[in-house]
Amino acid sequence: MKTTDKFLYIDKEAVATLAMARDGLLKPVTNLMNQKESEEVNITGKYKGEIFPFPFLLAPSGKRNNHVLQTSKKGDILKFICDNKEIGHIIVDEIFPIDKENRVKQIYGTNSKEHPGAHDTSSRLGDLAICGDYKIQFDDIKEHKQQIDEMVKNTEAKNISSIILTGKPFHRVHERLVRSALQKCDLLIILLRKPYKDDELSFDVRFKTIQHFIDHFIAKDRVLLLPLENTYIFGGVNELTLNAIVSKNYGATKLLLGQNHTGLGAYWDHKKLISRVDTLEKINIGIELFNEFVYCEKCTTLVSTNACPHGTHHHVKYDKDTLMELFRLGIIPPSILIRKEISSMILSDLFPERKERLERIYQNITTSSGVIDVFKCEDFYDGLMDLYHTTSLT
Ligand SMILES: [Zn+2]
Fold first, then answer.
1. Where are the domains of the chain?
2. Is 6-136 a CATH 3.10.400.10 domain?
3. Which fold has domain 142-290?
4. How remote is the CA of residue 177 from the centroid of ligand 1, in Å?
5. Containing H/E element for 130?
6. 254 CA to middle of ligand 1, Å?
7. pLDDT tens digits for range 289-332
8. 287 strand-pairing partners
């Protein structure tokens, strides 16, 4: 790095977001917007005649960045630095001031300091935005597109559905959704939100649990599991709109949504009450809403709440927070709620320090006399679950 070089310091979220635009996942947006374009999007909610909920900007915060932006002019090359590494550059076209408070409000629907996402984004934002052609090292999205292309080619898929999951945890209702989606489409793309903050249930485990289900229990040649870089642009009120845009750009013809999706409410726009589904359909992607599913003790199976005649007092809900609370306590959830292999993977990951104790118990409660390869915590939980299902005949 020469001393005359100019640098912009950006974080991983910004890198992934820039790559998403460059690689066509945010079409109609494929580049950073200039001042005139941003103002138009602010007023119309559209870009190049298509829906896009807020200006696509790069306005990195920090004194160093601010100084560089203030002293750069059209045609200058600014190098991008992320985690102390040079990962690309931008050729300055325009540098212009932005209204920070307004920007945060556009993304989150609020600029309250109490809102964690709004607060985070507010502190990541500087006062100046930059636009211009850029290069960035981030190849994941191109690879995902190739994977989809290959699968479309192999399956000759015409109807492609997508579903966006957090997988925290992946439970029986999710399994049901995936199975019924597969009956109606040629190819299903599952986009798994990849967070930019550490979480008690790591992204890797979530990915592993869903991939396990795909590999062992459904037609795996028609399902593709991909990470969705869940950067700040997905964090707020526009999440659903962006999910629809990304799904469409990945080639999906239909987006599947749970009916109790938090973002699905109606909202007021220009004094008119509009449902989010109306907006999503303007993006030219079909929307399908799934009913709420519960376990009914009378039907003794998973049922849709509007199809089962028994009252709610016979229903067991699939509440993700309750399931996560069981895992936090180290308790394996009943297998009507979560497949035991998946529970085993999650518990093994959450409690690695238990391994020795579990191995000793496992040796005493299992009948397998054969040579055990290498003990894994999963073996214990699976084995215990099998024993719970074993009944005595006398
Ligand atoms: Zn019932």
1. 6-136, 142-290, 294-388
2. yes
3. Rossmann fold (3.40.50)
4. 18
5. strand 125-131
6. 30
7. 887 889 999 999 999 888 899 999 999 988 899 999 999 999 99
8. 255
